[in-house]
Amino acid sequence: MSTTEKLSILKRMQTTLRTAITKLSTKLNDSNSTQADIEFNAERLQIKLNELTLADDEIYDFLNDQEYSEDIIGCEKYSENAHLLLFNSKKKANTSAAILPCSRIGSSPTSDSIHYASPPNVTVKLPTVNINTFYGEIEEFHSFWEPFENCIVKNEGLSQIDKHVFVRGYLDAEAKRLVDGISITADTYTMTKEILKSKYGNKDKIIQAHLDHLENLTPIKDLSPSALNELYMDCNRRLQALDALGERKNTIIRENFGSENTS
């Protein structure tokens, strides 16, 4: 078989696999799917991703530098979207779907453990932890980043690309749009992390955001116990956050609301 014929076969295989991945992604996005459906389709999607990675690798052997640069864009597109979808499906259905990067794969993942893009034969089992999705509210960054940093960033069992997949999976709204144009690779993980920390992690800006909210509270018209309790909880949460950032509550109240309120 000539090189041209073999490349043509591999290209057809690549197209078929990408079509299958698109169909499985649509099924995983179906809000009416049962947990069993999600688990089954996530496993099938992972298998197709593995097959696509192997096909891509074979194709690259036949391409020149220019063709390789063009083809890798398609690989990254399907890889990134599918990895994030698998991650979100796992969060939603508590499955054990594997999350793997667009790279050579030596063996297929098992269904009872999580296999990442870490060195071969390394299985990472993450602890159960509640990490809230971050939408871009600067006041919420500290409460999002602290558990994420302890459980994901400092986890030596995760590779850079694993951590990148996780951080992107926990972003939504403004925060997601901020880094949407960055490819999910090991090389861009640090850049993504620093962009988020630079935008939302400035301590002085976080403190000021809490103070601005407290200073501009809208008087409530509904004096029911539930409404008053909601206001109290909101103010107390922000005061606790400021206290954790090194701002003493009594000083904040005295400086912003008058000394008569500090009794």
Automatic annotation (TrEMBL):
<dbReference type="Pfam" id="PF03564">
    <property type="entry name" value="DUF1759"/>
</dbReference>
<protein>
    <submittedName>
        <fullName>Integrase catalytic domain-containing protein</fullName>
    </submittedName>
</protein>
<dbReference type="InterPro" id="IPR005312">
    <property type="entry name" value="DUF1759"/>
</dbReference>
